[in-house]
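User: Predict the full complex structure for these chains.
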Amino acid sequence: MRTFCPAAITSLFVSSLLAITSAQASEPINETREIATDGTVEIENVRGSIRVEASNRADVVITGTLGQGVEGLRISGDSQHLKIAVEYPDSGGGWFAGWGGSKAESSDLRIQLPATVSIDVSSVSASVEVTGSAGKHSEIDSVSGRVEYTGSADELEIETVSGDIAVSGSAINASLQSVSGRMDVKAAVTERLVAESVSGDVNVGAQRPLQRLQVSTVSGDLQLSAPAADGARFDIESLSGDVLLQLAPGTSARVRAETFSGDLSSDVGSVEREEHGPGAHLDTQLLDGDGDIRVESFSGGIRVRGN
Amino acid sequence: MNEFELRRQLRELRQGRKPGRDLWAEIATRIASEQLPASKVPTLRRWSGFGPAMAASGIVAALLLGLANLLPAEMSEEGLRRSPETASMLSRDADGLALEYQAALTSLPPVAVPPELQSTLQLLDSSAEQLQLALRQQPQSLFLLEQLRRVYARRLQLSRPTWLS
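Assistant: Here is the predicted structure of the two-chain assembly.
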């Protein structure tokens, strides 16, 4: 996953297709641009909202409202890589000027594009909502804005600082990261799902058998219900957050769980507790045991519910 | 043999035995006397020859890339888990990671942090402290070390001037 790079976000895109609309007062947006079916649309808006919707049209339709005081809407690039950015006045406060330092009002963007187009969305506090997008790659970065994704990209990457993340739809691989945002994942991810947080809770209700699941949190609580594919590997880790793992019916895996000082209970296998001091562990096999499910916590409790 | 099996075998080696006297006071004294001075705490091998500025930028990059960059190239994760020296080596790496992180953080130019971000930075600092405490109690835990690496990486990422100025 790429790292947050606001410097790149703020860099200008040199292109022959350039349009700037400045907003003296709050004003509507109505623009249309060509896009290749395998192209990428990059979208930036610091605050307000960003809505991306798949449509049956072959081009990109940009509507919404520019907030008063915003410098303008910059549309640049070509049909392979189109960039749409709300530009804020440079108040000398850096990237976060648009968040707290700028007096410009928030702007709302609605982008309708062909479903096969990849997207790259960046926000600070703007909420992000993506519906129906099915390109190869969907990437969304936000600081505090909530991200809702209901699409079917092959590769999905979402990263926030404090913004919540809600994902449904499907993906082959999905990587979700947040510091304190809560994650709710109800997606059909077929290969690899990575969800990492520091203090945010993580709730995974996978809709299809997963090959690889990596969930990690420092202090957030984890609730996981994910069918394991044949030979699946699940790694679930927390420092102090509690873990609730619901095993799906027919799970065939070796299930191991260990907590250094938390409580451990399980509907499957036999929990062994330390003779002296806290801590417990579990090691059991379900059916043929061709998968590998591992849960580790330092001081959080672990609950394994059976199938 | 994997980590779980290793730990299970280690548990089986334990035999409960009550000491004949209270040993804690003596243990506490010895711990206090064996504290390494800061200059003697092991540092990460990779950046030992770099100047401070280069080391700082290298650390940021390595922290962002992943823990694998901090570990000896010839040792895989499984290899580390199998090694009986895992605990002491990971403990050294945790100490080194903390020192190099502090060096990278202090090398960054001072920038005013927006109020919106201050609570997040405090949260990351607090999480790093909790992870360090946990690692002292469970030094063989690779996942705690990896979590610490990620917290440091995110903290540095959000402290960089490209974010804030």
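Residues 1-18 of chain A have pLDDT under 50 and may be disordered.
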